[in-house]
């Protein structure tokens, strides 16, 4: 991948640009919209019983809230899709949001609201916000902007790689202290993907892998320092949840039952059984289990293929962009969606321990959906400029070829018998 310096926003920048609508990646936009609408329907199906039984509200309570979140997210998405992505690398924008993210995460440890055994929430009147969700995007922007500026000496660990990791470590420590190991793991993996994509040498990559292995070994040896008793129980029950099906294995066992009951064609939308009080958090973390039960293999395939397409398009946008900042952000955003989807699906299927991570664009959740809207809005904006750059490069190449042909045609060609 070849990066070029882009200190100034290119000639076509502007909040409202003419003749740029065709440059947007509509296949990506349509896939995100369809998956989100599908998720809205499944949120209603998964929550209509639990809303009455557990929360004592109307059956469509979570459906209406998610619909409002989607409408709000649409406005946010449009703004970030139209605003030039290079804005976010400016110091007067980036530094304040970095400092605010540290301040808010630190404040959570004192004033945060506890939900799901984690002190990860802020209550603002009737609105509940999870700041760590938005920190994912802030970390992507910061690391991408920093490593893009350090391209000329990217393999110098002390000058290029290490300084930005100070902010990353502070963020991870504050999130782990909540405790929210799932979100911390996602942010850590996103950071690794951005570093690997920044152009570092294979020697540097091997060095990071070695550090990662050492960190994992230390966490295993001193697991009581890193994990709560509840988190440790998730590791032990993953291998055989049926031994503790009335305790720590309850969630996973009912997830297995829901997935197994659906088969190929499913029981029919709205006809699932496990959501009737057996499967907790059926509209959030375990919504894929409800999809598997009600829509079977076809529903699961639709979600997985849609997410895979979004990740694929994001990676292609990153590879196509010649701007280091845009390329690294596209790779970071698509990696975030893919990693989060893997952790959610891996948790409900028993491949990895449960971490309480929502399924992107499908699960109920305001903070997650709003944060994704910001991220994919930026991704769509990057795709627009990457497309424009490729068109301009193609035109320039054609012009160069035409000029060369014109020069050749004007030369005197010897007459041959």
UniProtKB/TrEMBL annotation:
Give the reactions, separated by semicolons, that this protein catalyses.
[GlcNAc-(1->4)-Mur2Ac(oyl-L-Ala-gamma-D-Glu-L-Lys-D-Ala-D-Ala)](n)-di-trans,octa-cis-undecaprenyl diphosphate + beta-D-GlcNAc-(1->4)-Mur2Ac(oyl-L-Ala-gamma-D-Glu-L-Lys-D-Ala-D-Ala)-di-trans,octa-cis-undecaprenyl diphosphate = [GlcNAc-(1->4)-Mur2Ac(oyl-L-Ala-gamma-D-Glu-L-Lys-D-Ala-D-Ala)](n+1)-di-trans,octa-cis-undecaprenyl diphosphate + di-trans,octa-cis-undecaprenyl diphosphate + H(+)
Would the keyword Iron-sulfur turn up in this protein's UniProt record? no
Q: Which UniProt keywords apply?
A: Cell shape, Glycosyltransferase, Membrane, Peptidoglycan synthesis, Transferase, Transmembrane, Transmembrane helix
| GO CC terms in record | cell division site; plasma membrane
The cellular location(s) given in this protein's UniProt record come to: Membrane
User: Per the UniProt record, which residue ranges are transmembrane?
Assistant: 26-55, 67-85, 92-111, 160-176, 182-201, 208-227, 286-312, 324-343, 363-382
Task: Tell me the GO BP annotations in alphabetical order.
Answer: cell division; peptidoglycan biosynthetic process; regulation of cell shape
Which molecular function terms from Gene Ontology are attached? lipid-linked peptidoglycan transporter activity; peptidoglycan glycosyltransferase activity
Q: Does the keyword Transmembrane apply?
A: yes
How does the record classify its membrane topology? Multi-pass membrane protein
Q: What is its EC number?
A: 2.4.99.28
Similarity section:
Belongs to the SEDS family. FtsW subfamily.
Report the function annotation for this chain. Answer: Peptidoglycan polymerase that is essential for cell division.
Please identify the protein, giving its name as recorded.
Probable peptidoglycan glycosyltransferase FtsW
Native organism is: Pseudoneobacillus rhizosphaerae
């Amino acid at each position: 991948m070849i990066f070029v310096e882009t200190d100034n926003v290119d000639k076509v920048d502007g909040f409202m640009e003419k003749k740029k609508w065709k440059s947007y990646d509509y296949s990506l936009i349509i896939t995100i919209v369809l998956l989100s609408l599908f998720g809205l329907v499944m949120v209603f199906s998964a929550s209509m019983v639990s809303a009455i039984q557990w929360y004592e509200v109307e059956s469509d309570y979570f459906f209406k809230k998610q619909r409002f979140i989607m409408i709000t997210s649409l406005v946010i998405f449009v703004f970030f899709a139209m605003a030039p992505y290079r804005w976010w690398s400016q110091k007067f924008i980036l530094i304040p949001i970095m400092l605010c993210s540290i301040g808010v995460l630190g404040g959570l440890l004192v004033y945060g609201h506890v939900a799901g055994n984690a002190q990860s929430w802020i209550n603002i009147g009737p609105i509940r916000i999870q700041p760590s969700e938005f920190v994912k995007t802030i970390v992507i922007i910061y690391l991408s902007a920093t490593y893009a500026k350090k391209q000329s000496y990217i393999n110098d660990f002390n000058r290029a790689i290490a300084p930005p990791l100070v902010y990353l470590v502070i963020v991870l420590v504050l999130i782990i202290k909540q405790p929210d190991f799932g979100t911390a793991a996602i942010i850590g993996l996103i950071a690794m993907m951005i570093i690997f994509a920044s152009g570092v040498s294979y020697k540097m990559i091997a060095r990071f892998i070695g550090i990662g292995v050492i960190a994992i070994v230390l966490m295993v040896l001193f697991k009581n320092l890193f994990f709560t008793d509840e988190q440790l129980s998730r590791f032990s029950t993953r291998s055989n949840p049926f031994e503790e099906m009335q305790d720590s294995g309850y969630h996973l066992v009912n997830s297995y039952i829901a997935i197994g009951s659906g088969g190929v064609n499913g029981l029919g939308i709205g006809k699932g059984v496990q959501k009737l009080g057996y499967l907790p958090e059926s509209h959030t973390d375990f919504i894929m289990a409800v999809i598997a039960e009600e829509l079977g293999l076809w529903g699961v395939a639709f979600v997985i293929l849609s997410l895979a397409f979004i990740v694929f398009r994001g990676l292609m946008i990153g590879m196509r962009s010649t701007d280091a900042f845009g390329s690294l952000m596209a790779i970071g955003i698509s990696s975030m969606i893919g990693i989060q989807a893997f952790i959610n699906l891996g948790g409900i299927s028993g491949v990895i321990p449960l971490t309480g991570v929502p399924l992107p664009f499908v699960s109920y959740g305001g903070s997650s959906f709003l944060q994704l809207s910001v991220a994919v809005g930026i991704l769509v904006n990057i795709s627009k400029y990457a497309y424009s750059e490729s068109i301009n490069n193609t035109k320039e190449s054609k012009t160069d070829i035409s000029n060369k042909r014109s020069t050749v045609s004007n030369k005197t060609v010897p007459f041959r018998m």
